[in-house]
Design brief:
The chain has about 90 residues and is α+β, with helices and mostly antiparallel strands. It is about 20% helix and about 30% strand. Strands 1, 2, 3 and 4 form a four-stranded antiparallel β-sheet that branches.
Length: about 90
């Protein structure tokens, strides 16, 4: 398995001029699996937040959602997935 980076463009729900990028990283067998894992981590985290619970910190598979902004929208249809490059030995 390789480590992948999934970059998902984001925008503010009420101010379309405010834009950014949410980055996920983790291990997957390929780009499609990486995208699905990132989306699953986000969905799971948002379910917890919506239910008034803290975001799960289960990053055992490398995929977790941190730094969630509930007033921002992730544009999953514009997400890109690439093999993760670790130039500074972050992990």
């Amino acid at each position: 398995m390789r480590r992948y980076e999934v970059d998902v463009p984001i925008h503010h729900a009420t101010d379309q001029d405010r834009r950014g990028l949410h980055v996920f990283t983790g291990c997957a067998a390929g780009p499609a699996e990486a995208l699905a894992a990132a989306h699953n981590a986000y969905d799971r985290a948002m379910q917890h937040v919506s239910g008034g619970r803290p975001v799960p910190d289960d990053s055992s598979n490398g995929w977790a959602a941190r730094g969630l902004r509930t007033d921002w929208v992730l544009d999953w249809h514009e997400a890109t997935t690439t093999a993760w490059v670790n130039p500074n030995r972050l992990m």
